[in-house]
Structures are given as C-alpha cells and as structure tokens.
Automatic annotation (TrEMBL):
Similarity section: Belongs to the Ntdp family.
Keyword Transmembrane: no
Gene source species: Anaerobacillus isosaccharinicus
Job description of the protein: Has nucleoside phosphatase activity towards nucleoside triphosphates and nucleoside diphosphates.
DUF402 domain residues: 18-156
A GO MF label: magnesium ion binding
The protein's name in its UniProt record: Nucleoside triphosphate/diphosphate phosphatase
Domain of life, per lineage: Bacteria
Binding site for Mg(2+) 1: N87, D103, D107
Known cofactor(s): Mg(2+)
Amino acid sequence: MSFPKTGSSIQVQSYKHNGTLHRIWEETIVLKGTSNIVIGGNDRILVKESDGRHWRTREPAICYFDSEKWFNTIGMIRSDGIYYYCNLGTPFTWDKEALKYIDYDLDIKVFPDMTYAILDEDEYEQHRKLMNYPPELDAIIQASMTELISWITQRKGPFDPHFVEMWYERFLQYRD
C-alpha cells in the first residue's frame, strides 16, 4: 500500500457511520506520511459540508491522524495560543483519492492551558440510536475517549508542547 508523499497536497474526507459523506477539507499538505501516521498542515483552506455549505478555516493548523487510534487531532495556531479540536472517529484509511475516516460526533476542544471540554454528546447519542451503533463500537468509542483524555493530560503525541510548533515550521517550508 502506498501512502501520501511528504509535500503532496491531499484531501481529507470524513463520513458518518451509515457511509454518507460528512465533510471534505480540500487541501492539506502532507508533512509526514507513513503506514501508522499522517501529519498534515493547512491554512485557511476550503471546507465543504455534506449539505452544500462551505467555509474557510481561520488559522494555520497541524493535523494528526493515526492508523490505530480512534481519534484525530487538529492543532489550531491562534494569537493567544494553540487550541486543539479532537474528533472521535475510526483510524484513517488512505486510498490515493483522500485520507478518510468515519466521524462519530464526539469531540474534545482543548484550550491553550490544556483544559478541555467534551462536545456533541447529544449528537453522538442521537446518531448512536439512529444508526444502530453496535455495543462493541460504543465500547471502542468510550475507551478511545478515555485514551484521548489521557493523551491530553499527559501532553502525549500531538499534545506535546513542541509538536505543533515543530510541524508548523516544516509546513512553512512547503507553503507557496
């Protein structure tokens, strides 16, 4: 299997459990692409929603996707610090068209002081019932939430204080 090449521009696509397209991020520069992780960078990119709406991101961001973890992270670089938006979802897949994952609604927003808020629990519960998530899936999502919170509190992986800064410096080398 091939993986996205460093320096290439890829699309990121998220889906819902029932297979419907949820959201597309048009352009992310691959800073590292292996069988286990993809780290990407983007800045003010176009995002298309499944309902036809579209918008642009507001700031530079460093994205972390893992082939074994049921979450991904977006470190957003703002004037007052780094904020993270973390999606609970399947490990990524890569099919030469795009990096893809299933989004399971639950999110965690992490603030520059590393406090966090769990978001969209009601949406997760609604979709869990509507799309009949099996109990095994619910258990994986809940365990992944616990693991993600552990990573945040331990400042592990993308939450390491230097992770976003280091990868942002690399991203700047690829920008036009």
